[in-house]
Amino acid sequence: MKIAEDVAAGLVHLHQSTSIVHGNLKPSNVLLGPDFESCLTDYGLVPTLLPADLLGSSSTSSLLYRAPEVKTSTAFTPASDVYSFGVLLLELLTGRTPFQDLLMELDDIPSWVRAVRDEERDTESGGESVSASAAGAEEKLTALISIAAACVAAVPARRPTTTEVLRMVRDARAEAMSSSNSSDRSPARWSDAVVLAAPTGIIHCPPQRASRPTGTS
Prior knowledge:
Blueprint: H1 2-18, E1 30-32, E2 38-40, H2 51-57, H3 60-63, H4 68-73, H5 78-94, H6 100-104, H7 109-125, H8 132-136, H9 138-151, H10 162-180, H11 187-194, E3 203-204
Parallel strand pairs: 1-3
Antiparallel strand pairs: 1-2
Helix pairs in contact: 1-5, 1-10, 5-9, 9-10
InterPro entries: Kinase-like_dom_sf, PRK1-6/SRF4-like, Prot_kinase_dom
GO molecular function, one term: ATP binding
Protein name: Protein kinase domain-containing protein
């Protein structure tokens, strides 16, 4: 979830400090440094394309992360970035890209996330009982699912702002780290309590190429 916090912080910086809409947030546009700090790339480019160019340059994978209003009007806004963040967060929670029909039925999101996580847990544990620590992560998981579901609301006005998203993610992360006594410098241990797998499209940078994430100090 350090990844989610850094990405949210980067979006806040883009929207508030530069008035730039990312427009193409997806796993392959998130780079990870040696300490798992996240760096946003390819921001502000897609919204400058003309509609015809946008259609021709968009891959199927990119379309999965775009808000409904963008697909019909190419109106990229901070709210459409929030939608993309919600899809990315769901992928962080499950290691799988949410299918489009699921995103249209928000009530199905919690059960889908839990079903995927239970399937992965059963595979890894061989069907053994869930540990107390895993059971204790349920409250944090519920909070993160709620954040993701709010972000992928079909109506842009119903989505939280990036500032609100960042606050909610930080609150959830702080609570999880407090209960697990994890260090901010040990992302693997923190993620074990809440997240199963990062999206395979997120790229890990070698130390010499790593830079600080957009919008963080």
